[in-house]
Amino acid sequence: MDIQELCNNVTGIAKETGNYIRKESQSFSSGMVESKGLHDYVSYVDKQAEEKIVKALESLLPDAGFIAEEGTGLRNNEGMNWIIDPLDGTTNFIHGLPPFSISIALAEGNRLILGVVYEINLDECFYAWQESPAYLNGKEIRVSGKAHVKDSLIATGFPYTDFSQMSPFLDSFRFFMENSHGLRRLGSAAVDLAYVACGRFDAFYEYGLHPWDVAAGAIIVKQAGGKLGDFSGKDRFLFGGELVAANALIYEEFLARVKQFMK
After folding, report:
1. Which CATH class is domain 3-141?
2. How far, in Å, CA of 238 to CA of 142, rounded?
3. pLDDT tens for residues 27-80?
4. What is the average per-residue pLDDT within 220-228?
């Protein structure tokens, strides 16, 4: 298997599906939204986008399984699995607010092989594979060179179903608002991680995450020179529900600050 060629094929699939989502956004209305649970929304666009992605990926690796947000082609193999979010930032999408993105990763167990994040509104495709640099629209990208949290811009996400850690989480907001360049919440974890990879953000943390939220962005950050872990610093973020990501210079300091609150 030529991983670079495979990744190139996946970027093509992401862009083609992104064109579909972009077209549908022009006539989409809030009446087309379904609720999967508390503050958890889905539309026909999510479902049809996922069907398009799964069908295209099946032709690339017929034996690979799928871990997909909307459950299309659901089969979790012991070997390789595609991990897919067909529309990361659905709430943004239904309100006509950027960013929203497509996230596609290939993993073998916990080992990430490739990842693609396509931010549809700006037509920006971030991607990387094992042993490669990270790229944005064909140009190599790197994480930022900020050396201290106090000089950093930090991204996070708000939980929408799991509020069990809200008090310490809000305490962490106050700390970072007072001791960094600021805190941002864009509404798409995949985009947050892509922006860490290209240096727009210096660090990111969130809990209540799913594999499809972070898989593609995580390998892009890693190949761009960043570091990742769960809130205890362990390499369990893919299926562990929590993630810290940052450039390598501030990672330890940033992780220590997150651990200070999110114990």
Report:
1. alpha beta
2. 22
3. 876 666 666 544 445 678 888 999 999 999 999 999 999 999 877 655 666 789
4. 98
What does the pLDDT average to over 204-214?
A: 96
Own/partner pairs, 94-100, CB within 8 angstroms, 24+ separation? 94/28, 94/30, 94/33, 94/41, 94/43, 95/30, 96/25, 96/28, 97/187, 98/122, 99/186, 99/187, 99/188, 99/191, 100/21, 100/187, 100/188, 100/191
- CATH 3.40.309.10 for the 149-261 domain, yes or no: no
* Tally of CB atoms within 10 A around 261: 19
Q: What is the rounded CA–CA span in Å between residue 260 and residue 172? A: 8
Do 205 and 244 touch, CB atoms closer than 8 A?
yes
Instruction: State the pLDDT at residue 250.
Output: 98
What residue spans define the domains of the chain?
Answer: 3-141, 149-261
For 139-189, how does the pLDDT look when each residue is reduced to its tens digit (9 = 90+)?
A: 999 999 999 999 999 999 988 777 888 899 999 999 999 999 999 999 999
Whether residue 99 has a cis bond before it, omega within 30° of 0: yes
The CA distance from 184 to 197, in Å, is: 16
Strands 33-37 and 40-43: antiparallel
Task: Calculate what percentage of the chain has a pLDDT beyond 90.
Answer: 80
Alpha helices in 26-152 (DSSP H): 44-60, 90-94
What is the per-residue pLDDT for 32? Answer: 61
Q: Name the token pair of 172.
A: 């962490």
Element (H, E) at 201: none
Identity of the residue numbered 8: N
Cβ distance 148 to 157 under 8 Å?
A: no
How far apart are alpha carbons 36 and 117 in whole angstroms? 24
